[in-house]
Amino acid sequence: MKIRSLVFLMLFPFLAIAQKEAYLFSYFIKNGEDGLHFAYSTDGLTWQALKGGKSFLQPLIGKDKLMRDPCIYQDKNGTFHMVWTSGWWDKIVGYASSKDLVNWSEQKAISVMEHEPTAKNSWAPEIAYDKQTKLFLIFWATTIPGRHTDVADSEKEKGLNHRMYYVTTPDFKTFSETKMYFNPEFSVIDATIFEKGKDYYMFLKNENPKPAEKNIRITKANSALGPFPTQVSAPITGDYWAEGPTAIEVGEYVYVYFDKYTQHKYGAVRSKDMKTWEDVSDQVKFPEGIRHGTAFKVSSSLLESLKKL
Fold first, then answer.
1. What CA–CA distances, in Å, run from 104 to 53, 98, 100, 136?
2. What's this model's pTM, rounded to 2 decimal places?
3. Which of the chain's termini has less CB crowding within 10 Å, N or C?
4. What is the pLDDT of residues 30-60, one digit of tens each?
5. Helical ranges in the chain per DSSP H
6. What's the pLDDT tens digit per position in 209-218?
7. Sign of the alpha-carbon torsion through 46, 52, 56, 57
């Protein structure tokens, strides 16, 4: 049997390549001035920078012209859609699309909070798809002073007290009105959605400053649109500050990567059942300086073309 398998792979090596899953990680470095970066992995543990660590796309929109927190989602037609934080105090989020992650469409500013005069920001936008309505969601964190239950010492963090908002779109050209997405009794940022089976898991950061939480929690719903219960899980991260979670399934595990931002390095936890989480931060390797991004699957042929750049 082993001999037959070996002969088959020798005769049809392209089938072996096609069966391999490849993983990409979109990220930024420093403050996001130089734009979009990619790393790749074949095992979910070791990630290597593509293009020698150089930028794939320069930011052109927003007050600060930054490209922080790049989130990439590939639709069923193969188009990659990207949103990002364009500036620390912008009321917009950036958007561009690509077929190959190299050549990108014109960058656009999606007006998500400009209708709110006192809104402070629009941070860490993410994309999800709701199968029931066949709509894409773009969601992000915003502080609107006086709008939500206050948290202790929020004024010491520039008055920031975030909740999650969202818009829907069928085509990334027209957008719904902005609505509340997730409104717990704590300051929340960096939410991301992971679909597994019939459930949609939201990984999020409890941003409360006093007592300091700064950890990753989970809540789940049966739709990307929710509603997501505001009674969330206990922290799945350890005794360190973590933000910017992103989740991907690699083999039998679901990995959740996050920015251990006070330590200036990346960490990870993983689970087989979405209930018990193993901290594997000491096993993962990422490019130096990597900041908040998104892990997603791509074809092995696309990865090979990116590695040639």
1. 18, 5, 8, 20
2. 0.92
3. N
4. 999 999 999 999 999 999 999 999 999 999 9
5. 2-11, 13-19, 300-307
6. 989 999 999 9
7. positive
